[in-house]
Amino acid sequence: MQSAPDLFSYRKFWAHRFGIAPELPMSREEMDALGWDSCDIIIVTGDAYVDHPSFGMALIGRLLESHGFRVGIISQPDWTNTTDFSKLGKPNLFFGVTGGNMDSMVNRYTSDRKIRRNDAYTAGGDGGKRPDRSVVVYSQRCREAFKGVPIVIGGIEASLRRIAHYDYWSEKVRRSVVMDSKADLLVYGNGERQVVEIAHRLANGEAVNELTDIRGTAYTCKHEQREGWWEKDSTSVDTPGKLNPPIDPYQMQTEESCADEKAKTEQEKKAEQTSSPKTNVIKIHRISPRNAGKTVIRLPSYNSVKDDEVTYAHTSRILHLETNPGNALALVQQHGNQDVWLNPPPIPLTTAEMDAVFDLPYSRVPHSNYGKMTIPAYDMIRFSVNIMRGCFGGCTFCSITEHEGRIIQSRSEDSIIKEVEAIRDTTPGFTGIISDLGGPTANMYRLACNDPEIESSCRRLSCVYPGVCKNLNTDHTPLINLYKRARSLPGIKKILIASGLRYDLAVLSPEYVKELVTHHVGGYLKIAPEHTEDGPLSQMMKPGIGTYDKFKQMFDTYSKQAGKEQYLIPYFIAAHPGTTDKDMMNLAIWLKRNDFRADQVQAYLPSPMSAAAAMYHSGKDTLHKVRRKGGDIEVPKGLKVRRLHKAFLRYHDPENWPMLREALKKMGRADLIGNGKKHLIPSWQPAGTGDLGEGRRVTRKAKTQSFKTQHTRPGKLAGKKRRRQ
User: Fold this and answer.
1) How far apart are CA 325 and CA 628, in angstroms?
2) Annotated binding residue at 398?
3) Cβ partners under 8 Å of residue 330, min gap 6
4) Where is this region: Disordered (predicted)?
């Protein structure tokens, strides 16, 4: 893996003499109290300002402050005019614009495109405090307020829209957000390195249009061949259309296949090259060319992908191949007479850098302007600790990998313990219970490839699918030691684990499962098998349900040994690409057989730039060779089929029974309709439910049966929604 200058090695900006602000200012009065005549950088965010490292505006703001810059916050401004965007004055260096911790469209709309009534990132929890596509709107208002001030956009909303992307809410392919926002720079991924370098270079007098070499950034430029660069067309990496011979560029090399390759003679290799000169094969372990630093892959243009689903799927595949910081090449995509240029991903932070970022002087509470108003997202995380970032799971529906990357970046044990002690000693309302020690995934702490050279050249989309890579270090000992040390601290009564658990990794460490189950489960443990059927699971890149069964067996065994009655809460996705009606029916049968009842269900929502979104839009299996003919998958689109798939997850709800009866009859499975234990849904209908309305009376026997069925399930699923970005 390439190295980068230490995040804290820059000489501090002159304004460091003003010292540390108790909280970053949100008004001119607060600036005056600090002795500031202006801000060097102003962060505009769609979230309420909470001075806590789990909130992006606070983490980036405090990091810039540690470098000597004066940082102001404009939180959830009125976007209908420029008044709020002008209240802190003109920033000396740039506006930093973010939609917030969540994508603004995911935040505002359900998977059925209905407006949400609430917003967990707003004081009071009220919805409607941010516009659709906040990054675009905020950037436009910043430009109107102060012409000529550089605008840098970032956060997950900008990160997932860095190239032309399918937009679920408008059902079309939209341009890169850097085009629509007219921003000067886009920062993608976790932006610490990029933002610090941008700030110092602008402070040193460089113009924003000169900042074209910063990793993890994107920008617009004139459409032309850049001098000194070798442009590689994306079709030379993965040609869309028919392959001859058909070779899967995502095929994962086993150790045996690698050994076979090494055993080939030079003559054999030369013969292969001669016999199929036009076949382009991507090796999973690619050594970057000598001129990689001056090589850029030309993606199909916006005009090509907006009307051609197959070309869009091809583009998505290329993007996901070029995400390893160790070997990724730059990408460029034409939009009209301009290009959107994407530099390779940023170099991950070291443990020392991660520690320093989380050790900055956060107040760990919401800004005082909010008074006693509650911010639901803060209430959820105020007693939790983020121990790592990144995820190598590669789930196709998830945006974590696209945003944070596959390389796990872990904090040191001492740094984590220090934060636990800070929560204990300074956070109001602490009762002795840490709600979570986790991150994007609960049990990837300190897990990484055993060979740095392989890690820097690997092109696998997942380290754990279709099986756990033999090169992956799966030792959970550091995490076990962390748990033990944290729960032994004075004043700490309980350490809970609330982050999603990767159970296919956990089963490789029985010691970890025993530790987790014995000490860190509060009665229920959330887990995400997502489905039971191989079809949808293969499109999700999730392990088979057999792995879940193995984990459940271990969970039950260790719970019994500990003398505790504890339950797993499995989560499932409805209507994911690759899911058929039969798949959902089989899932419903599995749920009933295992006495599970979902109070709330999650329907698949295509997040921009994810691999599953490309499947949803194109109807193609983008994990294998994209072909114009063949490779089609089932994509549940339309309100009717999505409702049916959700209804299968809630097979126990009488409101869904008429729909399910009709579907089961069409599927030739009327045998699942009846009043016995072997049936999925009953043949009778309670009055006032479903399509029958009030016109059907219910017998006493039917009422009793309904009551018993609804209230005697020990494994009833919790009603909390899971956030997927």
Assistant:
1) 31
2) yes
3) 295, 296, 297, 341, 342, 343, 344
4) 230-254, 683-725
Share of the chain above pLDDT 70, in %: 87
At which residue do the structure tokens 């402070």 appear?
203
Q: 3-state SS of the chain: helix, strand, coil percent to 5?
A: 35, 15, 50
In the chain, how many H helices and how many E strands?
27, 21
Domain coordinates in residue numbering, the chain: 25-227+294-342, 383-403+412-574
Strand 338-342: give its sheet, edge to edge: 71-75, 41-45, 94-98, 151-154, 185-187, 217-222, 338-342, 330-335, 295-299, 230-233
- Beta strand 436-438 with 524-530: parallel, antiparallel or unpaired? unpaired
DSSP 436: E
Q: Note if the pTM is more than 0.85.
A: yes
Compute the CA torsion angle 458, 463, 465, 466 (nearest 10 deg): 60
- The residue with tokens 């089929």 is 641
**In this predicted structure, what is the pLDDT of residue 641?**
96
**Paired tokens of 564:** 């505790």
Measure CA 629 to chain center. Answer: 31
Q: How do strand 384-386 and strand 436-438 relate by DSSP bridges?
A: parallel
- Write out pLDDT tens, residues 400-442: 888 999 999 999 999 999 999 999 999 999 999 999 999 999 9
**In this predicted model, what pLDDT tens digit does every residue of 94-103 receive, in sequence order?**
999 999 999 9
A 10 A CB-CB count for 243 gives 18
Strand partners, 50: 366
CB–CB of 536/620 below 8 Å? no
Task: Classify domain 383-403+412-574 by CATH number.
Answer: 3.80.30
Cα–chain-centroid distance for residue 351? 21
391 is an annotated ligand-binding site residue: yes
Tell me if 55 sits within 8 A of 101, measured CB to CB. yes
Query: In a 10 Å sphere around its CB, with 0-12 CB exposed, 13-18 middle and 19+ buried, how is residue 647 labelled?
Result: buried
For 118, phi and psi rounded to 5 degrees?
-130, 170
> CB under 8 Å to 531, separation ≥6 — which residues?
537, 540, 542, 545, 572, 573, 576, 579, 583, 587
Alpha-carbon distance of 722 to 694, in angstroms, equals: 35
Q: What is the pLDDT of residues 3-17, one digit of tens each?
A: 899 999 999 999 999
Question: Does position 651 have pLDDT exceeding 70, yes or no?
Answer: yes
Contact 167, 312 (CB under 8 A): no
pLDDT band for position 225 (cuts 50, 70, 90): confident
Q: For residue range 275-327, what is the model confidence (pLDDT) as tens digits?
A: 333 323 333 444 455 577 889 999 999 999 999 999 999 999 999 989 999 99
**Spatial separation of the C-alpha atoms in residues 218 and 223, rounded to whole Å:** 14
Q: Tell which phi-psi region holds residue 272, choosing left (phi > 0), alpha (psi between -120 and 50) or beta.
A: alpha
Q: What is the pLDDT of residue 625?
A: 76
* β pairing state of 409-410 and 388-389: antiparallel
> What is the DSSP secondary-structure string of 43-75?
EEESS--B-STTSHHHHHHHHHHHTT--EEEEE
Tokens 């000992």 correspond to 477
pLDDT digits (tens, 9 = 90+) for 232-267: 888 776 665 443 333 333 344 444 444 444 444 454
463 labeled part of a ligand binding site:
no
Q: Are 201 and 192 in contact (CB under 8 A)?
A: no
* Better pLDDT: 709 or 614: 614
At 628 the pLDDT is 84
Q: Is the pLDDT of residue 374 over 70?
A: yes
Q: Identify the pLDDT of residue 3.
A: 83
**Which residue type is seen at 566?**
Q
DSSP state of 7: T
Count of positions (residues) in the chain: 725
Query: What is the fold, at CATH topology level, of the domain defined by 25-227+294-342?
Result: Rossmann fold (3.40.50)
Cβ count near 528 (within 10 Å): 22
Nearest residue to 193 (alpha-carbon basis) of 179, 211, 176: 211
